[in-house]
Design brief:
Layout: E1 17-22, E2 26-32, E3 38-45, H1 50-68, E4 73-77, E5 80-81, E6 87-89, H2 101-109, E7 113-117, H3 118-129, E8 138-143, E9 147-153, E10 156-157, H4 189-192, H5 194-206, H6 211-216, H7 226-234, H8 238-262, E11 266-270, H9 278-291, E12 303-305, H10 312-325
Parallel strand pairs: 1-4, 4-7, 8-11, 11-12
Antiparallel strand pairs: 1-2, 2-3, 5-6, 8-9, 9-10
């Protein structure tokens, strides 16, 4: 059974749906109202083999359905998901390799189920209920341990021919760049992730040009992370600000490449680094405008912070589930 094509329907429907955010570490299952409000939520560590994981999700979903009358389930998972809801590969979830996740959950819950990549789901949440509310052409980029992305084109999630599109962290940004966690050299993720910020900071400390950042790590260069850079920049220290500015330019150049190809009306930035707010976004915006083709002759592309935070996964998944019963 092929999953339905998710279209641009965003408005309220009859009742709540269940959203599932399945990550490498944590599992969250929530009842979500048509307005995007999280009504109830259960969570635990992600564990067990495939059958145990399906049973756990189904148990949580059944409990929430019993108390809310929710009539469909949406799942966002950090994996390559095809149009049938089959999980082909999940680097942090070994039980989800060539795993029929949608079919198994539909059988276990007795409800309509849609399964999609977690970044797609988070992007849909921001379009339906967050910072990109109502946008028909949007990029949602997650800056965290890695770099993830969701692309919305003409009011639909863009999934590509096989469902694997929008792996935006894994295009070759610099063929002479750092090794990416995936094993390929010079991917954008290796320059623009939170991990990359830490790597840049340690290199600057080794060069002796980041004394304040180093001090915040207790003088231990190997202990320096992006958090120390953020703390330094927030305190107005020149070395922290300089490192964050250089990092922001790497992020912005990736945004420029994506914007030149996809022409979005808005770019939403999500992930752990959004805690830096405009301290991060302002230099990204400046560099973006400097390098975007014909920036002075085209409509501005706002670069804004995501609004849904940790709830983006369950809210977006529940919004996808609403399309099953709309």
């Amino acid at each position: 059974m092929t999953q339905p094509t998710i279209g641009p329907t965003i408005g309220p429907t009859i009742g709540p749906t269940i959203g599932v955010d399945l990550g490498g570490t944590n599992l969250r299952v929530a009842t979500v109202a048509p307005t995007g409000e999280v009504l109830d939520e259960q969570h635990e560590r992600t564990q067990g083999d495939f059958d145990e994981l399906v049973a756990t999700i189904a148990d949580h979903a059944s409990t929430l359905v019993a108390s809310s009358g929710a009539s469909a389930v949406g799942v966002g998972v950090a994996a390559l998901i095809d149009g049938d809801g089959m999980a082909h590969y999940a680097p942090n979830l070994p039980m989800l390799r060539q795993a029929p996740l949608r079919a198994a959950l539909a059988e276990a819950t007795g409800l309509p189920v849609v399964v999609d990549n977690d970044a797609n789901v988070a992007a849909w949440g921001e379009v339906c209920h967050g910072a990109a509310r109502g946008a028909r052409h949007a990029l949602v980029i997650t800056l965290g341990t890695g770099v993830g992305g969701g692309i919305v084109i003409n009011g639909r999630i863009y999934r590509g021919a096989h469902g694997f599109a929008a792996e935006v962290g894994h295009w070759q940004f610099d063929p002479h760049g750092l090794m990416c966690a995936c094993g390929e050299k010079g991917h954008w993720e290796a320059a623009a992730s939170g991990t990359a910020l830490g790597h840049l900071a340690r290199a600057r400390c080794a060069d002796g040009v980041a004394p304040n950042v180093l001090a915040r790590a207790g003088g231990d260069r190997d202990a320096v992370t992006g958090l120390h850079v953020g703390e330094s920049a927030k305190a107005g220290e020149a070395d922290g600000i300089a490192i964050l500015g250089d990092y922001a330019r790497q992020v912005a150049l990736g945004f420029v490449g994506l914007a030149n190809i996809l022409d979005p009306e808005i770019i939403v930035v999500a992930g752990g680094l959004v805690a830096l707010g405009d301290l991060l976004l302002d230099p990204i915006r400046v560099a973006f405008d400097q390098h975007l083709e014909g920036a002075a002759f085209r409509p501005a592309v706002p670069i804004v912070l995501a609004e849904l935070g940790a709830q983006a996964g369950v809210v977006g998944a529940a919004a996808l589930a609403r399309e099953l019963i709309a």
